[in-house]
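Project outcomes to date are best conveyed with an example. Our students and postdoctoral researchers have been running inverse folding experiments weekly, and each run begins with a structure described purely in tokens. The record below, which covers 517 residues, was selected by the lab manager from last quarter's runs and is presented without edits.
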């Protein structure tokens, strides 16, 4: 049990107890034993803001899809309802911000501010004001949620002055278009504080049809209480305007509950840099402190490979480890994990940058549907040059004498087979091969993606389910194509692999997304 659990909880939310200390701020612990796949929290969004192009998909009153509505109602480019009753319920809130919505597009472009951020602030302000004016038994839950929004952290001291300047400019420009009661209730500073809170605490939403496309963001103040970890024990999934949190593993009573705010298939430095940029904090989770999995996702093979199969690791002093500052491995001296060979990270940066550049070129070609060009960049250039070649069978790793060790003749720099740049390349190649009808290679690259995921992610992880589903579909397409290269023995092997992929997909979906229909 952690130190915080000995103190009195400041709040209880179902299976979660909320604590506070100077080091972590607010954080959550399980107040009972929780089993893997168990639903821990379900919260309806306080506000939900669709991305451009998805406004017509979501009702701005009930937050449900309008696709099944018999007579959806369009009020303006940003506001749709699934029924007249929803429109009537939202009318008081809409009236407070309708004039501002009319000029939102112009002002956001003129001030170079995210339009969705401004919409989110307007919606929070309007809904909050109405709830404060009309407090009764019917609105008690919504009002309590608004109070939780007000108490969300902002990390305002970590935002740069340029961000504050453009946001201030935008709200100054919106001022004349705000309802007079709204302006009297909330100062410009309060509206900017809402913007801080949205940037730090909002959660992205994806479509409910499994396409994994970003459709907007929602503000869920209870979910926002859960701290980040790069090795999470819970995941969150959007369901029809609500956010559901489920356990990815068994969680003991008193254990901290953590979810991930970012893509975890990155090196420690990459994740920390992204979290500082997007969430304004320096991550000190267990995985970041230990740099666990960095040998895989950011691994650069020893220059003595294949006689030495170690990877370069940064030499980090005690003084540096106490500083909350992001430094890449290229700013440090690196040391091989096996033979001890030392080298300046700067000497390796060019090769890694070139590998990333080749991936970017291949990815852009794939987006333009130039699949053969994409495969050329990724297979013939990126993988061929930078993927560490497999050793001959029976060739055991050796620990060279560092005094006699010599970098390979051509000075070739290889990246670990599970490096993040290859992980991304495998996914892109899978899609390219599928589009070209090269199903054998599509299956191969899908397996490579899953091999990377299994090595880095927890046993249960939402993205794994998606790729196991893709693998089962690719195998079925391959079997249906009646490829003459598939002998009876090979077909039987693929049939078994397809069934296994479906089983794993269902298992992980039930755990991460709940019971399937």
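After processing, the design step wrote out the following sequence:
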């Amino acid at each position: 049990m952690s130190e915080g659990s000995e103190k009195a909880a400041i709040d209880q939310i179902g299976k979660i107890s909320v604590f506070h200390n100077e080091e972590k701020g607010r954080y959550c612990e399980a107040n009972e034993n929780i089993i893997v796949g168990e639903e821990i929290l379900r919260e309806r969004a306080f506000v939900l803001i669709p991305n451009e192009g998805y406004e017509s998909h979501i009702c701005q009153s009930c937050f449900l899809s309008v696709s099944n509505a018999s007579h959806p109602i369009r009020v303006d480019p940003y506001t749709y309802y699934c029924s007249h009753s929803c429109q009537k319920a939202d009318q008081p809130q809409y009236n407070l911000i309708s004039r501002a919505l009319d000029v939102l597009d112009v002002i956001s472009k003129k001030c170079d501010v995210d339009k969705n951020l401004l919409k989110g602030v307007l919606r929070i302000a309007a809904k909050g004001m109405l709830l404060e004016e009309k407090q009764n038994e019917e609105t008690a839950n919504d009002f309590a949620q608004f109070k939780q929004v007000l108490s969300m952290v902002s990390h305002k001291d970590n935002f740069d002055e340029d961000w504050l300047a453009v946001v201030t400019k935008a709200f100054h420009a919106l001022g004349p278009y705000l309802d007079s009661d709204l302006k009297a209730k909330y100062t410009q500073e309060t509206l900017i504080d809402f913007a801080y809170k949205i940037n730090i605490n909002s959660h992205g939403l994806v479509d409910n049809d499994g396409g994994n496309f970003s459709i907007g963001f929602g503000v869920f103040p209870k979910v926002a209480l859960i701290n980040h970890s790069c090795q999470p024990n819970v995941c969150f999934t959007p369901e029809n305007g609500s956010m559901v949190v489920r356990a990815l593993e068994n969680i003991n009573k008193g254990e901290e509950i953590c979810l991930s705010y970012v893509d975890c298939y990155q090196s420690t430095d990459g994740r920390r840099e992204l979290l500082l940029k997007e969430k304004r904090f320096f991550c000190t989770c267990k995985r970041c402190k230990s740099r666990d999995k960095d040998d895989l996702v950011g691994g650069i093979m020893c220059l003595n490979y294949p006689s030495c199969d170690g990877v370069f690791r940064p030499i980090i002093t005690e003084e540096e480890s106490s500083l909350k500052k992001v430094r890449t491995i290229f700013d440090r001296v690196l040391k091989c994990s096996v033979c001890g060979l030392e080298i300046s990270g700067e000497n390796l940066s060019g090769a890694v940058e070139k590998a990333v550049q080749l991936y970017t070129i291949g990815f852009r070609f794939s987006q333009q549907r130039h699949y053969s060009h994409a495969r050329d960049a990724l297979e013939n250039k990126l993988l061929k040059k930078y993927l560490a070649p497999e050793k001959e069978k029976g060739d055991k790793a050796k620990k060279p004498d560092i005094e006699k060790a010599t970098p390979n003749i051509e000075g070739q720099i290889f990246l670990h087979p599970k490096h993040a740049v290859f992980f991304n390349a495998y996914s892109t190649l899978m899609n390219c091969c599928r589009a070209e009808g090269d199903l054998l290679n599509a299956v191969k690259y899908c397996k490579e993606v899953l091999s990377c995921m299994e090595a880095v992610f927890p046993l249960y992880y939402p993205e794994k389910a998606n790729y196991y589903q893709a693998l089962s579909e690719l195998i079925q397409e391959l079997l249906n194509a009646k490829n003459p290269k598939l002998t009876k023995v090979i077909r039987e092997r693929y049939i078994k692999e397809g069934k296994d992929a479906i089983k794993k997909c269902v298992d992980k979906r039930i755990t991460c997304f709940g019971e399937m229909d």
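Residues 488-513 form the longest helix (26 residues). DSSP finds 17 helices and 16 strands in the chain. The training component of this project remains on track.
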